[in-house]
Amino acid sequence: MDIYKEFVLKHSIDINAPPEKLWDFFRNIEKNYKTWHPKDHILFEWTKGNPLEVGPTIYSEQKMGSELAKLKGACTEIIPNRKITFKFDFPTSFMCPKIEWLIEPKGKNSIFTAVTYYKFGRLFLKLSKDKADYILETSNKHMQEEGENLKNILERI
User: Fold this and answer.
1) Is 26 in contact with 84 (CB distance < 8 Å)?
2) 135 vs 1, 140, 148, CA distance in Å?
3) Taking the domain 4-156, which CATH number applies?
4) Which residues pair with 10 in a beta bridge?
5) pTM value?
6) Could you report the per-residue pLDDT of 64-105, keeping only the tens digit for each?
7) Rounded CA gap, 70 and 92, in Å?
8) Smallest Cα–Cα separation from 60: which of 45, 50, 47?
9) Any idea where the domains of the chain sit in the sequence?
10) Phi-psi region of 75 (alpha: psi -120 to 50; beta: other; left: phi over 0)
11) How far apart are CA 50 and CA 97, in angstroms?
């Protein structure tokens, strides 16, 4: 029996913009971060290295429900105009090892998909099911809002 149970949250949205426009938004994420989710996003910094390359480190702060999440990690996979993957440092990596932003061309549009990976220990799920449910519900809501906000921002420009 596995010690952990994995959860994958995924949210997709059709955006009337080519992949290059989404990519440019993420290339300028330090400037765009607060605009992307004004209610929850506080700060995003590339702390070492160049944006949208494999290897640079990041630091971000955002609210997740009533809690402040301070996230450190690294950009671990880049496919220009298609995919950005971040892996988080400990202790975040203990429950949320990585996130992905996927961009899929669809005619003149793009499908943006945010994917968040969680893993919870079976003991945690047994003793703190309400906390696990809260984390998953809050993350899912946040991802949906990010998708809708990104759509609104890029279709306005």
Assistant:
1) yes
2) 24, 8, 20
3) 3.30.530.20
4) 115
5) 0.93
6) 988 899 999 999 999 999 999 999 999 899 899 999 999 999
7) 9
8) 45
9) 4-156
10) beta
11) 22
